[in-house]
Every structure is written in C-alpha cells, then in structure tokens.
Specification:
Number of helices: 2
Structural class: mainly beta
Shape: extended
Number of strands: 10
Helix content: 10-25%
Largest sheet: 5 strands, antiparallel
Length: about 170
C-alpha cells in the first residue's frame, strides 16, 4: 500500500546475487548486483565495472553508458492478483478439517477428491462462491527493477540463478 509519500531507504543496500555455471549442480561463479539510494530520489547501482547513478523514477529509468545495465525504481500498481476473502475462507475450512485429516509418509494431508476440488473452488472465488476479485487492485508497491545484459553475469556459464537480499548500508 505504497503512496506518493513512500520512499526507498537510504540505509539499505539492495543486492541481487546472480550465480552462473555450465550445468545444474556445478560450482557457480557469483556476481553481485548492488543498488543503494544516497538521497530520496537518487540511486547508484553497479555490476562489476558497470555503474549508473541518478534519479531512477523516470519511466525510462537509468541506463549505463554501454546500455548493459538499466534500472527503474518507483511506484507501480501491485501486479499480484489475490482473492483475500476466498483465501481466508479456505484457511477456515482447512483449520476446521485439520483434526480429522490423515497424512502420508511425507506428512502431506490425504484429501478425498471432492474435498480437494471444493478447496480449489473456494480459492478461486470470494465468500460464499461469489466471483473472485482482486483484493489488491489499485494498491501500489515500490518497485526496484533491474535489467542486466547477460554478459555481465554469466562468467561461470550460461545457466543462471538469482536471489535477492537487503543489507544495512555502512
């Protein structure tokens, strides 16, 4: 529920960790992608020697001199479609049924097909079966969007993996 008054923190380093390898399960070469706001609307990001800085909130964002790194940061409509009431009704049904459930060796509940179908139907609708709606429609999020040319992150091979973290800025 971000608003026009929401802002990214200048006390945080936003990190994308990109691993590259020649095959699944092989040792990866790690390449960090780091971004930090140093003023309310001013950002710097770097991947190796590729560097950009400035105001990333323009719809075109920022682009490095080579064009291999692009960054946008700002307010966007939440892209996640979620029927909250239907989800809450499903949780209630599962909690109510929990004492009578049986489980397999992996501790997964064994559900009769009709129960499973009813839960799926509830997840796809609102309360009492009304049509699903997007509970978060019109809600905004702050988005940090990074576009990276693969040549900046595939030193270890063509197979890429990624995860993100935040760290206190020093």
């Amino acid at each position: 529920f971000a608003s026009v008054d929401s802002a990214f923190s200048d006390a945080v380093v936003y990190a994308l960790h990109v691993g590259s390898s020649t095959a699944y399960g092989e040792t990866q070469t790690q390449t960090p992608v780091l971004c930090q706001f140093y003023a309310e609307d001013m950002l710097e990001c770097w991947v190796g020697d590729e560097y950009i800085n400035g105001n990333p909130s323009d719809t075109k964002g920022l682009m490095s001199k080579s064009g291999k790194l692009k960054v946008f940061a700002g307010l966007r409509d939440d892209p996640f479609f979620f029927e909250l009431t239907g989800f809450q009704e499903t949780v209630k049904a599962v909690v109510a049924a929990a004492p009578d459930l049986e489980f397999d060796e992996q501790m997964c509940p064994l559900l009769p097909p009709e129960t499973s179908a009813a839960l799926v139907k509830q997840l796809q609708s609102g309360a009492k079966g009304v049509a699903a709606s997007d509970t978060f429609a019109g809600a905004n999020v702050l988005s940090l969007v990074v576009q990276i040319d693969k040549s900046l992150v595939n030193a270890g091979g063509p197979l890429l993996s990624a995860w993100a973290s935040t760290h206190a800025a020093k």
